[in-house]
Write a structure and sequence with these properties.
67% helix, 7 helices, 236 residues, mainly alpha
Length: 236
């Protein structure tokens, strides 16, 4: 039993090595890229549409609605990044039904990389929406004293994203492995189904938290309306 797919080494030459985390990560990215290419190569605007296109439209529409409910003003602007995060984590969980497969999200290196992607994307979207000066000014709000605390929050939430996803995915894999060694029939099947559900929930939580952080970074405070002068009372 392995605590992390990093321990499974497929090939190594000196300091360079290919472990299960790297192999499954690139395999998932290849499956997602090829699948997206195959599904979108014959898109139709007519009423008769393929089942794959209907499935794709359902997924895209659902992700777009969730992004809009978070508070982002232009959901389609962020659907490429947030949708990819969700699909990657979800596919990593769904593939656990394959015998011998270990999800790359069970490695802290993978979850840390996903969290770093969010950490980089948040200021990029914020700068694009507010400008460099406007985004940096948000670190000084409401007072200059909050600058170190705002910086610490950026780092701490990145660590929280990585550790939360890693802990939930690794714990599920460990429980299934323990139950397989003790009772190799009924309980592992039940735990595998629960693991799939947990993985989908984690994919949803991870992408929603990323959307919340981006929404906070792209929030532009509306100018306060100037008070209108009341008309002077008429002297009778």
């Amino acid at each position: 039993m392995h605590l992390s797919p990093d321990e499974v080494i497929f090939w190594q030459y000196g300091f360079f090595k290919v472990n299960a985390t790297i192999a499954t990560t690139w395999a998932l990215m290849l499956v997602l890229a090829v699948g997206a290419k195959l599904i979108t190569r014959r898109l139709s605007t007519d009423l008769p549409r393929s089942r794959w296109q209907n499935l794709l439209e359902i997924i895209v529409t659902a992700i777009e609605q969730q992004i809009a409910e978070v508070g982002l003003r232009h959901p389609r602007k962020y659907i490429g990044f947030l949708g990819t995060l969700f699909l990657f984590v979800a596919m990593a969980s769904l593939c656990t039904v394959i015998p011998g497969y270990e999800p790359p999200t069970g490695s802290l290196s993978t979850t840390a990389a996903l969290a770093l992607c969010v950490m980089v994307a948040v200021p990029l979207f914020g700068i694009e929406d507010q400008g460099l000066a406007g985004y940096l000014k948000s670190y000084l709000e409401p007072t200059v004293i909050m600058l170190p605390f705002n910086i610490i929050s950026e780092v701490s939430r990145t660590l929280a994203l990585a550790v939360r996803l890693f802990g939930n995915m690794m714990s599920g894999a460990m429980i299934i492995g323990i139950l397989v060694s003790i009772t190799p029939f009924i309980f592992p099947i039940v735990m595998t189904v629960l693991g799939l559900l947990t993985g989908m929930v984690q994919a949803y939580i991870f992408s929603i938290l990323a959307a919340v952080y981006i929404a906070a970074a792209t929030h532009v405070p509306k100018p306060k309306p100037k008070p209108t002068a009341e008309p002077a009372p008429k002297i009778q």
